[in-house]
Amino acid sequence: MKASDYVANWQNSWVIANWKMNPSTQLTVTALMTDLQQQLPADALQSCNVVVAPSFIHLATTQQAIQHGSCNIGLAAQNLCAQHADTGAFTGEVSGAQLKDAQVNYVLVGHSERRQYFNEDDTCLIQKIRHAFAHDLTVVFCIGETQDQYEQNQTQDVLSAQLTVVKQLAAEFANTQLGNLASRLIIAYEPVWAIGTGKIPTMQEVQNIHAFINTTLTDIDASLATTPILYGGSVKADNAAEIAQCPNVNGVLVGGASLDATGFTQIIQAFAQI
Questions:
Q1: So which residues are the catalytic ones?
Q2: What are the sequence ranges of the domains in the chain?
Q3: pLDDT tens readout for residues 237-254
Q4: Which of 22, 37, 40, 238 has the lowest tally of Cβ within 10 angstroms?
């Protein structure tokens, strides 16, 4: 099946792979997707939504692997242009229209690496989300605090500030015929200090922060109470089951561990069993 035919069950858990600027070759992508689809039990996909976010250059290869495989897997992009244009003189950028043509249904926005290395601020992120919504792309909106902010007990203040983007979008939705924001949005909480470091908050901290995010979203708009909230940051096969048991954790955004088919399958199975 085509990746564009993927339909998620929003009552299920979510496991989303962010490959970042990996792997280095299309052959490796094909091998990774082949291994994943061979190892992944079909029944796991009945209770867990699985989405893969390759780099732009590997979208077509990943889509072909999904189309020729036997697993129901969604396709995401890691970024899109902030300019609300289908085409134009925006060197190096990719539009929402181009992503939809590439069979993409999801897009990451607000990842800490984009905020840090490319100086993407709230104004930029809101423009990207509007652009994504205009092309019926579901947005995985990433939020999270730095090490210093965590150590200074500023986590909730930082997340509240980052979620003002959602507050502004909710106000826009309320005044238009755009539909239900909750059906277009996934939140991914990734403490910046845990990404790729092997460090991870305690399960109690994860539970508390996810509860705080859920309360904040509900205060913005009651319909957002059902918004999936994923955890990200050093998620691995050996901690996935424990994370999956945390209340208010609806899935995970997985980085490096998603590049190993066996380990990634184990993560999916952990969330398929909750």
A1: 111, 190
A2: 3-272
A3: 999 999 999 999 999 999
A4: 238
Q: Identify the residue whose tokens are 């564009």.
A: 4
Tokens 């609300």 correspond to what residue? 84
Amino acid at 104: V
Report if pTM > 0.85: yes
CATH code of 3-272, in short, is 3.20.20.70
Which DSSP string do the residues of the chain spell out, in sequence order?
--GGG----TTSEEEEEE--S--SSHHHHHHHHHHHHHHS-GGGGGTEEEEEE--GGGHHHHHHHHHHSSS--EEEES---SS--SSSS-TT---HHHHHHTT--EEEE--HHHHHHH---HHHHHHHHHHHHHTTPEEEEEE---HHHHHTT-HHHHHHHHTHHHHHHHHHHHTSS---GGGTEEEEE--GGGTTTS----HHHHHHHHHHHHHHHHHH-GGGGG--EEEESS--HHHHHHHHTSTT--EEEESGGGGSHHHHHHHHHHHH--
**Separation of alpha carbons 114 and 122, rounded Å:** 12
